[in-house]
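Friendly challenge for the regulars: who can give me the structure tokens for this chain first? No prize, just bragging rights.
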Amino acid sequence: MKISEIAKLAGVSSAAVSRYINGGSISEEKKERIKRVIEETGYVPNVAARLLRQQRIDSIGIIVPRINSDSVSNLIEGVSSVLNKNGMTAIFGNTENDEKREIEYLRLMQETRLAGVILMGTVFTAKHEQVFRESKLPIVVCGQNHPSVSCIYHDDKNAAKEIASYIIGKGCRRLAYIGVNETDISVGVNRRLGVEEAMAQAGLDPASLVRSEGFFHAEEGYRGMRGILDGGFIPDGVICATDTLAAGAMKALREKGLRIPEDVGIVGIGGGTAGSIIYPALTTVQLFHRESGERTQCSAII
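First reply, four minutes later:
Bragging rights claimed.
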């Protein structure tokens, strides 16, 4: 519902409705009429859009796929530390892993006077390509490598290769891999390729890798591990694309009566909080999301 429709129902001007929403001066009689219509219709002002239109050049937009993630929170910490030092502010958009919402945020932020946009990327579509080409603002992608925009990302393939080589070096030969959807190139594809490359170098057949694929939540790690175990395969080594997935996988292993690491070795990637608070502590590869946030700011926008 638009402001003009609220105004028509209340019998006032659109300007009066706008003043009411923004806390401006308006007669008590009009205020009550507008309030009544808003309550009856359930109208919710698009505060985010209004704030975006009002922003000055000393603000940036940050678009993330989710907020309940170590990598995202560390990235935001890094970005915020540089913003604070430079007297700047940020506007956040949480897409909840919705590609359409990500495009909406990217386009909405084009209508502002922001200094630029940081996108923590996961999946790129033809619509992303179009927004990147037409953008009036500098866009920096963090976490993925994309040819159309500036990017800061980890060496995901070699990170996975190193941790896989480590667990293979500990004597593990029957390997399982808990990964993520391969529409995500960095985490989904490159980390899986790194594991397979480590196996090949160790004389193991990458085709023997038993795999599960899901999303980034601990529940998905649990579900994936249970599926592998219930299918009859008992690994002696499990490699997980993230520490959060590893935490879920460890729960599934324990429920099956398997000891960690005596019966099954398990490793993750990320170096986040999840791996440090579980027992036994998770062997993992440290990634530098906070530093990525700092460099994203310094290199492309400020």
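The longest strand covers residues 59-64. The beta strands are 59-64, 89-94, 116-120, 139-142, 150-152, 175-180, 210-214, 237-240, 265-270, 283-286. Your move, everyone else.
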